[in-house]
Amino acid sequence: MLQHKNTDFETRTLDAVCVNNSELTHKWYHNIKYMVVGILFGIVFVKSEVVSWFRIQEMFRLQSFHMYGIIGSAVLVGMISVWLIKKFNIKTIYGERIEFHPKTFNQGQIYGGLLFGLGWAITGACPGPLFAQIGTGATVIAVTLLSAIAGTWVYGLIRDRLPH
User: Fold this and answer.
1) What is the DSSP string of the chain?
2) What global pTM score does this model have?
3) Strand pairing partners for 91?
4) pLDDT tens-digit readout, 51-68
5) Interatomic CA distance for residues 130 and 117, integer angstroms
């Protein structure tokens, strides 16, 4: 059986990893702005109750529109943002061009989405708000964080054998 070796670009486009990595290098303190934005994002998560296990359970039981409204708003903002970036050829804050590459649908996305949703429903946490949940004192979520890290590690091990 002839096995094709993917180039780095081809391999990275199979993942959700960004293929627009910056070519610039910065000193360590340039990352402080990301920490500040992350803290502010965590505060927004807490205040909007996105990190609430009860809100997440309400969503999966179809008892409340709250989470669907937040997710729908995020999707809408994302769609408008991508449209604006493409229409006006907006560059990064460092002047680098932003490129969008087409992604093809594959069967693995169905299985991955089902596993993701199942884990989200069972634990009441998705990867985005995990740190905010831990920051609010829900330290039991550390188990979910470790499970997410373990799942990512296992995916990296078996990635080549999965349907991409």
Assistant:
1) ---PPPPHHHHHHHSSS-S--------GGGGHHHHHHHHHHHHHHHHTTTT-HHHHHHHHTT--SHHHHHHHHHHHHHHHHHHHHHHHT-B-TTSPBP--------HHHHHHHHHHHHHHHHHS--TTTHHHHHHTT-TTHHHHHHHHHHHHHHHHHHGGGS--
2) 0.69
3) 97
4) 888 898 899 899 999 999
5) 15
